[in-house]
Structures are given as structure tokens and as C-alpha cells.
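Hmm, what's this shape?
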Amino acid sequence: MKPFLSLVLFFLFIGFSAKAQNAINVTGTWNLTVETDAGSGTPTFVLKQDGEKITGTYSGQLGEAPLTGTIRGEVIHLEFAIEGNKIIYDGKATSTEMEGKVDLAGMATGTFKGKKK
């Protein structure tokens, strides 16, 4: 009986851990401030989260583009392409704020901060 109880407790623990990791929900409209060595901007991201997968749109100084990304725990990764140039945002997020680093296709790098609208 003890092995069965241990097995049940193990699966309950795994279930709670997985649920806790997905507690952050970034779905919504985000207003960001970006500072790079090539200038600054205030893009808007509209994100939709499905588990760890993120889809959405970027709108800002570079134009508009569909984006994809992931969130694992609080680590967020977003990317999109403008005229073939890959833009990458990597950082940390909560359900209401995010910040991190941005790489503008290797032509400029910088930081970003943002809040959910």
C-alpha cells in the first residue's frame, strides 16, 4: 500500500509543480519602452499565450509583424522578422510586467521594459 500512496503523492506533486510554472499569463496588449545603441522606441505587442507557446503581433517604429515566442516559468522569448531581419526579445515576465534584452538583427542591441495594458 505504501508504494501506491507514494506514487499518488508523486503525481500530485508533479501536477502542482507544472501548474505553478504556468501561473504567468502574458495574454494581452503590452506597451514597451526600448532603449538601444541605435535609438529608442515604444512598440506595442499583442500576445496570446497557449501553455508555453506565444503568438501575436508587433507594432512599432520598425513596422508591423506577426511574432512567435515561448514562456517557461518567468523566462520569455519573443521573435519576429521585419524585411527578413530577425528581432529577438529575451527576458523575464510576470503577468503584468516584463523586461530584458533586445537584439535588432545583430545591427543594434539594448534593453526593454513593459507593462500590460
